[in-house]
Amino acid sequence: MSSLKGFLPLVFIFVLFVAGCNDAGIKTADEPAADSVTIAKKPARLSSTKKKSPEKYRKPMTLTARVIEIGNYVAQKGFSTKYCFLIDMSLHSGRNRFFVYDLEQQSVVYSALVAHGSCNERFLDRGRFSNLNNSGCSSLGKYKVGAFYNGSYGASFRLHGLDKSNSNAFSRGVVIHGYDCVPNEEIYPRVLCNSLGCPMVSYDFFDRLSKIIQKSERPILLWIYR
What we know:
The protein is of the alpha+beta class. About 15% of the residues lie in helices and about 25% in strands.
């Protein structure tokens, strides 16, 4: 790899807040405080001899390919064939990566920021994934968006994991909910606050999701992937 000229500028990351979300009616003794502070450290300068990460340069599956797969799935499994929710965890957390997709019009109607889990660490700028109870991590896979309820973080929708990779989602209390550390606009190159495994969004975006979910005659499918 050829030498890099100069040094990459340092990016200063603001103080972020870790929000707990193990709240689907299940209380755990080791649940972290929702107001614990998380600070993202400055990134180190790149060395001219540093090797490229295979994951960073992996070609992601396109949104179109995901939609084709999910379109076949919802038709076979009795889900809504109007809307589906897609979360692309391969994208930077400061970018919009929660997509509301209109399957009939074949277009994205809304997109927004969404937090990933901290895996019970002080802060994770990139998501790691686990299906284990009390892991604090996000789980990849397909979910059925379930019933509305008012939990520890207010209005929420329960999630039912449909794959081996997220089969414990309901018992873990992984839900869709809003939180005030998630803004309405993209913040890249800054990184977003972490949850404890929930797809946590802004309150405004949650209201949009809520209207779609509650008007739907069939359950809506959520797919978290990378």
